[in-house]
Amino acid sequence: MNAVARPDARPDLHRPGVGAVLVSTWSVGTPERQRAAVEAIRRAWESREWPDLGLLSYSVSAGTDGDTLLHYSQWTEQKAYDDFVRTYRDDRNAEIDAAVPGIERVELRRYAPIHRSAVRGGTGTGELPGVVVVVEADFDGPGAGRREDWVDTVFTALDEDAAKRPASGGISAQFHLSTDGGRVLNYAEWESEQAHAEWLADDARLSEAWKRVHHHPGLAGSRVRRYTPALSLSAGV
């Protein structure tokens, strides 16, 4: 089976059988190099057999900063990714690097499947996002239950937002816990970059509920980055 691109350039975030999620970031330098790298990724993958049935999907989003690429892949288990690295990754990366020299592979993190999620309307949506917002919250150690409690605290604040601002522009939010115990990743879909920026600027973000999120015990820091869906690949039928 060869790789095929999904027409909407986004992963199926709630597909069955996902046992592990890998998220990595590349720095490529310019919007032109972002586009060239995405095209090089597409060519390198579509010209080869799909590497393993343990890989369910591989998606790439381009940072609105004009520099970064976000890679989000779904696997049946962590071992499937390790087998891919040993057998299939190097030749693909070599072709991509030849097309776009100087890519910096900044970080790779391993995550468990979705820990908790929310979808506008509560039952799923076919609405396509204009932007993906990725929040990375880092903790100062793997304290028991701290990350899970932080996610619950975020949901309390989001519930307050929904009551005050029902048309905020958020489509969905998926929270992953890293396997190393140090990070929570929120992969959130929004209608547009402007909708997310307006939500961040709203005075409701100064509520007591959000203060508890930002000053949660063990939270060492967080980052927010916005991306545009660019490519999503899966095995052809």
Describe this structure in words.
The chain has 237 residues and is of the alpha+beta class. Helix content is 30%, strand content 35%. The protein is built from six helices and ten strands; from the N terminus they run E-E-H-E-E-H-H-E-E-E-H-E-E-H-H-E. The chain has helices spanning 31-46, 78-87, 89-99, 146-164, 193-201, 208-214, and strands at 3-5, 20-27, 55-63, 68-75, 104-111, 116-119, 131-139, 170-177, 183-190, 219-235. Strands 1, 2, 3, 4, 5, 6, 7, 8, 9 and 10 form a ten-stranded antiparallel beta sheet that branches. Strand 3 (55-63) and strand 4 form a beta hairpin. It is globular, with a radius of gyration of 18 Å. The protein starts with a strand and ends with a strand. The mean pLDDT is 92.
Write a compact overview of the structure shown:
By secondary structure, this protein is α+β, with helices and mostly antiparallel strands. Helix content is 30%, strand content 35%. The chain starts with a strand and ends with a strand.
